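User: Batch of two.

Assistant: Item 1 of 2:
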Amino acid sequence: MLAYLLESLKIRKDLGDKTAIAESLNNLGSITHKLGQTDEAYEHFREAFKIAVEIGAIPLSLEALLGLTEFLLRGGEGEKAVVVLSLVAHHEASSQEIKSKAQEIFQGLLEGARDRSLQESWTRGVELRIGEVEEEIFPK
């Protein structure tokens, strides 16, 4: 499966189809994450997000952001992750599947929360725009 996705990405890059490239990168991010290849997964999701924002493919950028929340959580950035989850869950361009996944992750976080900071972050994410995410959530 992984070899097939890598070959697909190569073909799409050769064709120069940026939408298809972002799709392949999101798929590779998901698969490599499931295989425990977290560094590769992170890079795939970041590159997918960057390309998707560049070409205005909002649903693809939201999918990449959802994949990146796992890395924010692992890095102890729970509040930032919740902001991103909220953006994904409330954005009109998110598919119902992506919205549901974001809400499910958030509910799981709320169960273990002791304070209101996560709820405040959720509220903040509703107002966030995709263009603001990279500077605010993923600084260089």
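Item 2 of 2:
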Amino acid sequence: MTPHIECHLETAGPFPDLKRLERLARFVLEAEGAGAEEVGVVLTDNAGIQALNRAYLGRDEPTDVLAFGLTEGAGNQPTVVVGKKGRPYLGDVVISLERAREQASDYGHSWEEECKTLLVHGLLHLLGYDDGTEAERRRMEARQNRLLDSFDHPPSLLSSFRAAFAGLDDLVRTQRNALIHLGIAALVVAAGALLGFSAWEWAVLLLTIGLVLMAEAFNTALEALVDLAGFDQSIWGPCERLRSRDVPFLLFSPKQSAAIQEAGLSRGARGVLVKPVKVRHLLALVRELLAM
């Protein structure tokens, strides 16, 4: 099941494209590994958000966005409860359309773009992100910008091929075995040309070469993952670079993640990011490792 988004209108229009906001909210939740959670999006005005800000945060002033998680677990990680429809209810994001319009002119983009930015910001707060310190703010802002860019510019087939060839180029330049395999493949192709291979023989040959290079790429990625899981000190530099790009570099199932957190696994300042992920997150990590 996909995340469910409920929009609540508590002010007079005009309103941004509500369907697009709902798609963006689902996109963010899915990109962050959420399942069938339900989230409320409340669109109000300055007076409405000021009343909430005063009642719940003790700040008698309007703001742009507020995020109300129902409960919060250890380490600011979100804990959901079951909503009326049987779905886990993550919380509500409240956006002042009036403040969004004011800020849009200051930032030099459209009102709808500002609404999208505020929505992603609020959702990230619900998902456990914080911006209390400068480092947290930079991390959250980087993730926010990446999500917005990915939503507005989904990857095309051409960009996917470019990324694949860039990864292959990096693999060949950095992995000696891959370079050897590629050299052997070039010799075999030359031999095939001299021997006059038929079409089906070429198909088998090229498929075999592709499978060998793919196996080498996955082997390289898995070796890196094993090193990471073993806390090999030699790879903390790459880990830090990965973490600065907001890519989870240790992957566990939800049960494993809970067990590790209960055990208090910690690396001090170099704390390991542990989160439940789906297959697409593993593939994203493999791409990051290949691009290192």
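The chain has two domains: 4-152, 157-290.
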